[in-house]
Amino acid sequence: MTSIAQFNAQANKVTEREHAEQLGLLQALSDAVECGADAPEVGRQLDALIAYSEAHFVSEELLMRMKSYDDYEEHQEDHAQMLIQMRAMAADHAAGRSALIHGKLQGMFDFICRHIATRDKRLADYVRTNQ
């Protein structure tokens, strides 16, 4: 899996703290899966990623509403899709199909990085110019 440092160097020189935390949780999940952590540990990592992502997305969506952001619907749809994918990984894990998670992690990482580099960057630019 591409590292957080590689993503930062390639896409954004400065990643916001919340995005770094979210990517760190995804990396921790990936590490747990790759090193063969037991099912409870993988479950804890998944739960932490989902809970943090939900809170982060609510925070961003509130900011977008407060600023009357013109790209709210598309941005929010990305959030919904990420949560659907995360919850699908959790369902696979709960059903004893944890091996399926490994194949989905790089896609999730790529999706989040692309979202940060495009939608979140546009939102940050919008907020800066509309304070």
What is the strand and helix layout of this fold?
Layout: H1 4-10, H2 17-34, H3 39-66, H4 72-94, H5 99-129
Helix pairs in contact: 2-3, 2-5, 3-4, 4-5
Short description:
This protein has 131 residues and is mainly α.
Output the keywords.
single chain, 82% helix, Four Helix Bundle (Hemerythrin (Met), subunit A), 0% strand, 5 helices, mainly alpha, 131 residues
N- and C-termini, Cα separation = 37 Å
Q: Which fold name is given in CATH as the topology?
A: Four Helix Bundle (Hemerythrin (Met), subunit A)
Strand-residue proportion: under 5%
Order of helices and strands: HHHHH
Mean pLDDT rating: 86
Number of strands: 0
Supply Rg. 15 Å
Q: Can you tell me the CATH architecture?
A: Up-down Bundle
What is the top-level CATH class?
A: Mainly Alpha
Shape: elongated
CATH homologous superfamily, by name?
Hemerythrin-like
Largest sheet: none
Number of helices: 5
Contiguous uncertain segments of 5+ residues: 7-15
Mind explaining what this structure looks like?
This protein is 82% helix and 0% strand. It has 131 residues and is mainly alpha-helical. The chain has a single domain, classed as Hemerythrin-like (Four Helix Bundle (Hemerythrin (Met), subunit A), Up-down Bundle). Helix 2 (17-34) runs antiparallel to helix 3 (39-66), helix 2 runs antiparallel to helix 5 and helix 3 runs antiparallel to helix 4 (72-94). Residues 7-15 have low confidence and may be disordered.
